[in-house]
Each structure stands twice: as structure tokens, then as C-alpha cells.
């Protein structure tokens, strides 16, 4: 199976919904790859992998190493790597240098940046120089220190308008698709109708051109998840059960058995 390319993703606007999940490690990438159009090496690895309080602490090295692992574990999906906080906001040149490093060191197809109008010149700069960019508007977790939390965005008329303008600016700057996170559904629908590139919703609307979730959230690895997460699995109890059985068998010396030892 040939790997999906950015132009083919772009062509999916208004067509069959795009399936996207996050991946950070090689084995999970292998398991997700057959079912997904895109794998996002999200900076959500801050919380999921590293136990950090938010994504602000993520480094370029983290994204490069996990991005490379996910590319090695996938054959079909387009792999997108999040640019970490502080690696792209300073200037288009800074963004280009760091995005180029991520593509070189991982083999990923594109990068994702959070932001709207302010980021448009940067998105244009990268796109014109061979780096496809996915946008991310609405609830942008890297701005947690400004926003003060992760509440739904766009409740006031003014904020709603500003989010739509952000998405339009990002699309016009050349983004090949845009994540819309944590906004009132009407905003997600309006953006999806207005922009020429596919929109990928998370806490947005089923009418977006695709959906993304944090894999560990949808697998049921965590006790607390945002409202927009549906748990498609209950991995925490699967792990709990297996590890409890292992511990019991070690303590009772019923593991290992003859099957697992080298007799002689
Ligand atoms: O980091 C991440 O996982 C993301 C998605 C939730 C869109 O940015
Ligand atoms: Na992210």
C-alpha cells in the first residue's frame, strides 16, 4: 500500500471523511496505520507520554525522536508532526529551520502549527519552500498560559468571528488542512464551508472533513478525559487485569511454567 500524500489528503475536501489519530511510538503506529489516513505525532505526548502538565514543555528533540518512531511504524498513513511551543512563533525563518529539521530527521510529510492570522505569513513562508503545513485553530493548547484553561472557544460573537477569520487566514496562507479544536459546532461548520482545504475536527462537528482524537484517550487509558472524547476501548482495565494476573502468578510461583523456561 502506497503512503498517502499531502495532495491526496487535500483532495479529500468534502469527500470521504479523513480518519486521524495521534501516535507517538512504533508499535502503536503499526496498529493504527491500517485504519488511518493520517497519524499525528501530537505534542499531546507531553501529557500522554511524559506526564507534563501541558504542552508548553515539549522540545524539538522529543518531537524528532517520536516522529521518527511513528514514521518507522507506518506504511500507509501520512505522518504529521506537531511543532513544539517556541519553535515557530518567533519568525518565519525560525519556523522554517525547525520544520525542516523535523522533516529531515523524521521523514514525516508535514508539520502542524497552532495559531491563526498571526501565523499566516509563517504558513505561507513554509508552504512556498516545500514544507506542507497543517493549521490548528480554536482551542490551541499551547496558549494555555494566555487562555487559562481548556474551555470551549467561540462562545462570544466576537471570539467566534475571530476563530473563523483565523481559519480563513490559515487556509489562504496555504495550509493543506486545518484542525478545529474545542469550538461551538456552528463555528466548525462555518469554517468547513468557507475554507477550500479539509477541516479535521476534535470537539468540533461531525460535519468537518475528518476527525482526530488522542489515541490514549479514545482507548480508555485515562480516567479523566474531555467531553469530546468517546471511549472506544477500555485499555486501562485490560492492562490492570493482565498486570494483576502477572503479579499474582509471580507471587505464587506459578509463573514461569515449563513452557517459558529453558530446561536442562
Ligand atoms: O497534540 C495533539 O494531540 C493535537 C490533536 C489533539 C489535534 O494537537
Ligand atoms: Na498538538
TrEMBL record:
It catalyses: (6R)-5,10-methylene-5,6,7,8-tetrahydrofolate + 3-methyl-2-oxobutanoate + H2O = 2-dehydropantoate + (6S)-5,6,7,8-tetrahydrofolate. Mg(2+) binds at residues 43, 82, 114. It is an enzyme of class 2 (transferase). The keyword Transferase applies. Catalyzes the reversible reaction in which hydroxymethyl group from 5,10-methylenetetrahydrofolate is transferred onto alpha-ketoisovalerate to form ketopantoate. The keyword Acetylation does not apply. Pathway: Cofactor biosynthesis; (R)-pantothenate biosynthesis; (R)-pantoate from 3-methyl-2-oxobutanoate: step 1/2. Keywords: Cytoplasm, Magnesium, Metal-binding, Methyltransferase, Pantothenate biosynthesis, Transferase. GO terms for biological process: methylation; pantothenate biosynthetic process. 3-methyl-2-oxobutanoate binds at residues 43-44, 82, 112. PANTHER family: 3-METHYL-2-OXOBUTANOATE HYDROXYMETHYLTRANSFERASE. This is 3-methyl-2-oxobutanoate hydroxymethyltransferase. Homodecamer; pentamer of dimers. Binds 1 Mg(2+) ion per subunit. Its cofactor is Mg(2+). InterPro entries: Pantoate_hydroxy_MeTrfase, Pyrv/PenolPyrv_kinase-like_dom, Pyrv_kinase-like_dom_sf. Its EC number is 2.1.2.11. The active site is at 181 (proton acceptor). It is found in: Cytoplasm. The gene is panB. It comes from Sphingopyxis macrogoltabida (Sphingomonas macrogoltabidus). Coiled coil: none annotated. Belongs to the PanB family. Its main location: cytoplasm. Pfam families: Pantoate_transf. One of its GO terms (molecular function) is methyltransferase activity. One of its GO terms (cellular component) is cytoplasm.
